[in-house]
Every structure is written in structure tokens, then in C-alpha cells.
Amino acid sequence: MAAGNVLVVGGTHGNERNAPWLLEHWGRHPAHLNRAGLAVELAVGNPAALAAGVRYLDHDLNRCFGLGALADSRRSSRELLRARQLLADFGPQGTTPCAVVVDLHSTTAAMGNSLVLYGRRPADLALAAGIQAQLGLPIYLHEGDPAQSGFLVERWPCGVVIEVGPVPQGVITATICHQTALAVEAALATLAAARDGSLRLPVALTVHLHQCSLDLPRHSDGRPACCLHPHRQHRDWQPLRLGDPLFQGADGSTVWFEAEAAGKFGAAMAAGDCAWPVFINEAAYGEKGIALSLTTRERWPSSQQWGEALRQLALELTAPC
Fold first, then answer.
1. What is the structure's pLDDT at 272?
2. Structural domain harbouring 247
3. What are residue 70's phi and psi, to 5 degrees?
4. What mean pLDDT value characterizes the chain?
5. How many domains are contained in the chain?
6. Which of 118, 119, 131, 256 is 20 to 30 A away from residue 150, measured at CA?
């Protein structure tokens, strides 16, 4: 692999303004990110959407990085063109090649400071384990969902999403920015330790493995028939068991969580297991038919293969000029 930098992206969604605000600050004061001794490139993911104050113009940029869409010359939405440009500029074979990407997001859901992975690449798992060991951040491993694919971090050899909330769309808050900065610093420190051979992964990694997503109950014309139950709102990463309140009607009636709601996953829960919901009532997911996603909490022993994969990649990272 050719030598590469670390790419930090903010504003993949134009109405998430905390990360772009941080990028502007780091651009003026690059020393704040150079303390780990790595060369860092900064990029606003969707500058046109950011200027317009909207999540996207034509399509969700964070669903435009599928190989088929990128290669199809007949497709030319503004977000798809932007995805191709980001890869041309900062992809592994780009003008300024980057080997690792850290994609910064904020959410209206009460996710706290958290990480999202898309798949089980060893270097990704090692990077996430290193961050979790420093800050204790929960990890959402989103895989096996054909309805949601084409994520930005998948097109780089190693990548992780930092997701922080709750914060309203279009709003910048000091807490969200501080938590984001802490996670970025932890990511860079993990990469630097992998490069110099000092990284020691924790004994195990705690992950929340995606199982399914649930929509609100709806009327026949598609209008929501219920909202999230107040006992479920803002309870991301908290267990959900069969028989717990899940939705509430306008008349105050309760819809309870039943196995049928979660399909095959719900059937497995009949044995007494619980689900761990994430992205509860994320504002942007309504258009995707997602009121919350359900996960299982698992504890995975760290693998020597993870650390070696990240070490080999980190050896190619360049130092700041």
C-alpha cells in the first residue's frame, strides 16, 4: 500500500453542523490534530448541502458509496458526483491518498458519544477497540441490512463513524463538539500507537450487533398512527424486553413490544433475551421507515489479527509536514 494520510470528514449530511464547525477550527489550528504525529486531511463531505442547511440535495451522500453506483456512468446525482470526487481526491488511489477515514456525524437520538462500524474488517475492529479502551464508547455494528448500504467509510481500507447526540439538526453545541473532538483524538492516538508498535488492545470488545429496524405503526395511507412511547424515548443503549411499552397513540393507548414486531429476531427473544435499541427516533430516519434499530449486545475476545491488520496499515501513514 502506498503511504497515506488520515482523512477526517464532517458534513456528510449538510444539516449536521457540529463537525464542519470543528473542521473549520482545525483547519485554522492544525496543530490541534497533529499531536498524534499523523498527517490529517480535512474534508467537508457535502458542502453544497451544508450551505443549503439540508441533509442532502438529491440523495443521501452516505448511501452513495456502493461500488455499483460509483461505477454507473448513467447515474449523476449531485451526491453521487460528490462521492466520486471525494474518492478522486482522498481515496486510496486519489490525488492525496488516505488509508484511514474518520466520518463525523451528529444525531437527534440520545446516542451519546458512540461509534458505528459497517462490517468486520480486522483493522476497523482494532481501531474501534482502541477507542473504546480509551473512552468506553459503545459500538453499533451495522451489517446484513440490504436496505441500508453504500456507506462512505466502506471505500477506504479502514474507517469508523463517530456519532454523537442528541442535538437538533442545524444546531451547534459545545458538548457535542467536545465529545466529537475527544473521539477524534482517541482515534488518532490509537493509529499512532499502532504505527509505533505500542498499541495494546483490550481483552475484549463490546459490540451492539444490528438485527433489524422497526418503523412506527402507520395508517393505510402511510401517516404515523403512533409515536415513540415516552418510556422508550431517549433510552438508546438501554435494554428492551418483550412486553415493554414501545409506541403510544394520540389517545394515550400503548403498543407493547411483541415478538412479532421484530420478526425472526423477536422469535429468538422469546427465550428471555433482550434487545438493545439504538438511533431511537432519529429525525432523518423517518423517511427511511426507521423509528429505531434493535441490536444484540455481544462481547468479542480481541484478536491478534485485528491488531496486526491495523499495525500494517498504520505503518504506511505519513507524518505531518
1. 64
2. 214-295
3. -65, -35
4. 95
5. 2
6. 131
